[in-house]
Structure prediction request, 215 residues.
Amino acid sequence: MLSRRTLLSSLAGAAAAGRPKVYLFNIPAQPLRAALIAYAAVVGTQILYDARTAQGRRSHAVVGLFSAETALRLLISGTDLTILASGGDSVLVPVSDLRNRAGEAGGGTTLVLDTLYVDVPPGSEQRRDYADYGQRVRAQLLHAITSDPRTAKRIYTLRLGITIAANGTVGIARLTRAEGTAGVIDALQRVIRDIVLDRPPAGMPQPIYLTIIGV
Prediction:
């Protein structure tokens, strides 16, 4: 349990460093609509979605200090929803809707949105070096995936665990979800294995899980 002093110190430290503001969340896994209401109450911002989108879906638990964006991505992880930005608001839409829009526009492989979320191990949100490292991993992987012609502007959903050696080389420890053509999924794994990342902080728990969505 974080004390009030620890929480205020963490918030002030993030603001002073110019990093995104963090909030203390304690939202258990529950029906998605109720979880979104609880999320909005914490961050004071509105999440736009079709009421039918929330029906039958459950949220992921979000407990700890997170930025608003990271918390929302955690909240909907495991669902087929993704986040669009529209006029400063966050809009939840099913990935299938985005794919349909791309197809209707005559560009089935047009890149509408690329999302890569780095799920740092439980408790890591309280270690700023772990959280910062997770963001660097996200940026490096996203650049590699969107720059490679085999994986840019492709449709897929991939969730996997990776290990990062002291020299930055990457190994794939576990593949838990793979949706897309076999060629694209194979290419994604090759791009991830070929990248050399920054050296991980000493003692950081591994594997790190990634959720990557290309639509």
